[in-house]
TrEMBL record:
Coiled coil: none
GO BP of this protein: alginic acid biosynthetic process
Keywords of the record: Acyltransferase, Cell membrane, Membrane, Transferase, Transmembrane, Transmembrane helix
Name recorded for this polypeptide: Membrane-bound O-acyltransferase family protein
GO molecular function: acyltransferase activity
Length: 477
């Protein structure tokens, strides 16, 4: 059930009405809504999801006691076995075949076509379950009071398909206070604004540039340098506006229900270095990687060479999490190398006494431009259909082989520049949101404001009704 579909909007309206009409039954309303959301995608995968959640809940009751390590191991096996089978088994099989030099026959099995449908949100709920198990094992979090509560926490339809990744310490207390949540008009208006923002991004930006991205990457092996840059620029904005649209709609849905979900993006393409980028891109995943991979590996408490290895290892694992392909692994490794290189660079500036340079606005602008383009290069590995396509595009982009501009590439480069300017406007809008919103309400009569909101909503509904809703990119992860 896609957030950008009329079906989901009707579903959300029904949940919203029941949620506030029957405050004592809110947990039941959410539990049933979550089940319906997943069952809509496939009853079999809903049953699988519920069984994994129930298993982890049961195992968590043994955490903290004398068998805590054993229970933690069992819980991790359940979660990772489910994730590895559905997401990585065919990739691992193919890699083994390439290594051994022959094909393993799957005739007579349900997987003869070498494809396994990926359950919706499997990567996101797996990370939530792992975080829960580890936190309870370490005593940072008390086990959930009931399977009912645990199910609502893990499966909340607002976020579990593609994030943000919730932590038990932040979200379980909200569920335990859910009956006391009051209907607040300002909060509901803000929630609707987030949902509207997400829909605008998806319908008016992502849907318009996606065909060009698909066309260019579909013939990646034939692209010249300019066309490769065009394709990469457009994909950079496609994946940002698509993923941030989903995340903002998730935050908006949470606000409608009086629940706080974390923002996942803070205009990341205005970052001047890798560390800043990962504080602003897919924030909840970055925090998860830091807390459950980088720090357990030793974090920054070890020798410098180990820190660099830890950074590269953590980001490579992040790449593997995104998808079962070597291109994703290389993408993660690439960002790990960028992070390690930036740390070395920072230490070099400190030794030479040039740290004040980083505070210079001209240096900041230059650093943002450089790192944005390094990020765009990385997106080639993320999006390319094959390793060969990615290598060809990178060669063309770095050597600018066959430089030639056409009317279409010039137009698309102009659109890319416009999208970057829009990204800057988004940054300013977030920074000055309170001032601008108060000014908007003070300067514009309520009747006109209402007419503007209604017009936007009507146009969006018409587009949603007349077009086929496309899936969000991160639904595939």
């Amino acid at each position: 059930m896609l957030f950008n579909s009329p079906t989901f909007l009707l579903f959300l309206l029904a949940v919203f009405a029941l949620y506030y009409f029957f405050p004592r039954w809110r947990m039941l309303v959410l539990a049933v809504a979550n089940a319906a959301f997943y069952a809509y995608a496939g009853v079999g995968y809903f049953v699988l999801f519920f069984c994994v959640v129930a298993s982890v809940y049961g195992i968590s009751k043994f955490l903290g006691g004398s068998r805590s390590k054993l229970a933690l191991t069992a819980g991790l096996i359940v979660v990772l076995a489910n994730l590895v089978f559905f997401k990585y088994s065919m990739f691992l099989l193919g890699s083994v075949e390439q290594l051994l030099g022959f094909t393993i026959s799957l005739q007579g099995t349900p997987f003869v076509d070498r494809e396994i449908a990926l359950p919706i949100g499997i990567s996101f709920y797996s990370f939530q379950l792992i975080a829960y198990l580890v936190d309870v094992h370490k005593g940072k979090l008390k086990p959930s009071r009931s399977l009912f509560e645990f199910w609502v926490f893990i499966s909340l339809f607002a976020h579990s398909a593609a994030g943000p990744i919730l932590r038990g310490g932040d979200f379980l207390p909200q569920l335990r206070n859910i009956v006391a949540i009051k209907f607040r008009t300002p909060r509901v208006k803000l929630g609707l604004a987030f949902i509207l923002l997400g829909l605008v991004k998806k319908v008016f930006i992502v849907e318009k540039i996606a065909p060009y991205v698909n066309e260019y990457f579909g013939v990646a092996a034939t692209l010249n340098g300019v066309e490769s840059w065009v394709a990469s620029y457009l994909f950079a904005f496609q994946i940002y506006f698509d993923f941030s649209a989903y995340s903002e709609m998730a935050v908006g849905i949470g606000l409608l229900l009086g629940l706080r979900l974390d923002l996942n993006f803070k205009t990341p393409y205005l970052s001047s270095n890798p560390a800043e980028f990962w504080r602003r891109w897919h924030i909840t995943l970055s925090q998860w990687i830091r807390d459950y991979i980088f720090i357990p590996l030793g974090g920054s408490r070890v020798k410098n060479w180990r820190i660099y290895v830890n950074l590269i290892a953590a980001m490579t694992i992040s790449g593997l999490w995104h998808g079962a392909a070597w291109t994703f692994i290389i993408w993660g490794f690439y960002h790990g190398v960028l992070s390690a290189a930036h740390r070395m660079y920072g230490k070099g500036l400190k030794k030479m006494g040039w740290t004040k340079l980083q505070g210079n606005w001209l240096y900041k602008v230059f650093a943002i431009a450089v790192f944005f383009h390094l990020t765009v290069i990385g997106w080639v590995f993320f999006r390319a259909n094959s390793w060969g396509d990615a290598v060809h595009m990178i060669k063309q982009m770095t050597l600018l082989g066959g430089v030639s501009f056409t009317k279409e590439t010039m137009l698309l480069l102009a659109i890319s520049a416009g999208l970057y300017l829009l990204h800057i406007v988004e940054f300013l809008a977030v920074k000055y949101f309170k001032r601008w919103s108060l000014g908007w309400e003070a300067a514009v009569p309520s009747l006109i404001r209402g007419a503007v909101y209604a017009a936007i909503a009507i146009v969006l509904l018409m587009l949603l009704m007349n077009g086929e809703a496309s899936s969000f990119i991160y639904f595939a992860f």
